[in-house]
């Protein structure tokens, strides 16, 4: 079924150019649709901030998405519909006594969309969400159903596919036994302490997020500690004092949408994200940018941003600093490098943010930043391609699976192929 459609993304800063939205009721119907449509892309949860998911026509997988999980006999993997959201998946895994290794800061996003853009959580030993993918099924541009599993030659190129390889319909994910987490927030860590003990700070828990407005000190450190690995820090952290109440990542906002803090133990799915399902995540009225670079460059990169602080602060709601472990996925922002992620939540002033990004990206350029594929950045394919050692292999895979360019769009041509 196709309907006339006019849509905007979750934050309201991007209006889709597509005016027709398809909702196939079966995989067979999806295959036929893909094979006959000149230009098409899958529409996920609309949490991207750019044109990456846009096309002449869009397809929704809502009618093909259930909330059940198929648990493998060895209970080490589960297979799910690609359109399921992480919050829904977490509820299903909870019933099975299982868990994912990590979650992003908000559980509202779809599995397929998060995987395709290398979206991540945090933790020095934790890979991004795509790192959990053990297999996938997708419809290629000729309408054929392709299945791939970890170990296949093309698999590392297929996972973070940027929507350019086909419409993903099913995903197999690594899981582990369910675990509990305690979350505590610490405030006002001096920059000098962070620079001297950066690795110690980001290793203080299973998942650690730092928040800053680039003022005189680091504003907050959110430490998520697995209860099966000890209590984690209590009271203070390298001189930063534990918060006396719950906090929102953006100072001054009601913390009601955030996950439980103050050291109360809770399920992995209720503590690893920053925000709860059922609430508007983050602020909602915002634009996001994010840049990943080698973790061993964290201190000089942060020092460069502090020098730019007077220009950043007027447009900044918060900056989150996280760590991500290396993976082998060709277009992952953490490909073959343990990474630090510098995430910016901006006020919704597109023109002013883009003007600032000119200088911000220039300040980070010596460190080889890889922008998050689903967020706002300026660097084009000529700048980005050298930062991905398997870039040429990925483009060859795109050409082989989609020779007619059904899944290409202007965003892909500008930022990935360089033909715009």
TrEMBL record:
GO cellular component: membrane
Ranges where the FAD-binding PCMH-type domain occurs: 14-178
InterPro entries assigned to the protein according to its UniProt record, in alphabetical order: ALO_C (IPR007173), FAD-bd_PCMH (IPR016166), FAD-bd_PCMH-like_sf (IPR036318), FAD-bd_PCMH_sub1 (IPR016167), FAD-bd_PCMH_sub2 (IPR016169), FAD_lactone_oxidase-like (IPR010031), Oxid_FAD_bind_N (IPR006094), Vanillyl_alc_oxidase_C-sub2 (IPR016171)
Domain of life: Bacteria
Source lineage: Bacteria, Bacillati, Actinomycetota, Actinomycetes, Geodermatophilales
Protein name per Swiss-Prot or TrEMBL: Xylitol oxidase
Keywords: Oxidoreductase
Coiled coil: none
GO molecular function: D-arabinono-1,4-lactone oxidase activity; FAD binding; L-gulono-1,4-lactone dehydrogenase activity
């Amino acid at each position: 079924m196709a309907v006339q459609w006019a849509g905007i993304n979750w934050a309201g800063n991007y209006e889709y150019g597509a005016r027709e939205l398809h909702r196939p009721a079966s995989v067979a119907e999806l295959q036929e649709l893909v094979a006959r449509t000149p230009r098409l892309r899958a529409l996920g949860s609309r949490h991207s901030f750019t044109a990456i998911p846009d096309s002449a026509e869009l397809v929704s997988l809502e009618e093909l998405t259930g909330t059940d999980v198929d648990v493998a006999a060895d209970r080490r993997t589960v297979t799910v519909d690609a359109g399921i959201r992480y919050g829904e998946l977490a509820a299903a895994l909870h019933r099975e006594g299982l868990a994912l290794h990590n979650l992003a800061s908000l559980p509202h996003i779809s599995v397929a969309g998060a995987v395709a853009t290398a979206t991540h959580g945090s933790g020095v030993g934790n890979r991004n969400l795509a790192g959990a993918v053990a297999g996938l099924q997708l419809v290629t541009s000729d309408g054929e159903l392709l299945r791939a599993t970890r170990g296949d030659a093309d698999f590392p190129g297929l996972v973070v596919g940027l929507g350019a390889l086909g419409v993903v319909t099913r995903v197999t994910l690594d899981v582990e036994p369910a675990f509990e987490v305690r979350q505590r927030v610490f405030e006002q860590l001096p920059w000098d302490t962070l620079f001297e003990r950066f690795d110690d700070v980001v290793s203080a828990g299973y998942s650690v997020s730092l928040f800053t407005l680039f003022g005189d000190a680091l504003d907050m450190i959110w430490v998520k500690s697995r209860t099966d690995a000890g209590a984690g820090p209590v009271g203070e952290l390298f001189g930063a004092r534990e918060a006396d109440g719950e906090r929102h990542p953006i100072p001054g906002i009601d913390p009601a949408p955030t996950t439980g803090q103050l050291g109360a133990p809770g399920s992995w799915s209720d503590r690893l994200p920053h925000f709860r399902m059922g609430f508007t995540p983050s602020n909602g009225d915002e634009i996001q940018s994010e840049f990943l670079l080698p973790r061993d460059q964290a201190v000089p990169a942060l020092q460069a941003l502090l020098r730019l602080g007077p220009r950043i602060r007027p447009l900044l709601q918060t900056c989150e600093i996280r760590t991500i472990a290396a993976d082998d996925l060709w277009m992952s922002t953490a490909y073959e490098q343990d990474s630090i992620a510098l995430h910016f939540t901006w006020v919704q002033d597109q023109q002013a943010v883009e003007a600032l990004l000119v200088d911000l990206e220039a300040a980070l350029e010596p460190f080889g930043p890889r922008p998050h594929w689903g967020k706002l950045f300026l660097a084009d394919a000529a700048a980005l391609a050298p930062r991905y050692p398997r870039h040429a292999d990925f483009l060859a895979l795109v050409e082989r699976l989609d020779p007619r360019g059904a899944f290409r769009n202007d965003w892909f041509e500008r930022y990935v192929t360089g033909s715009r």
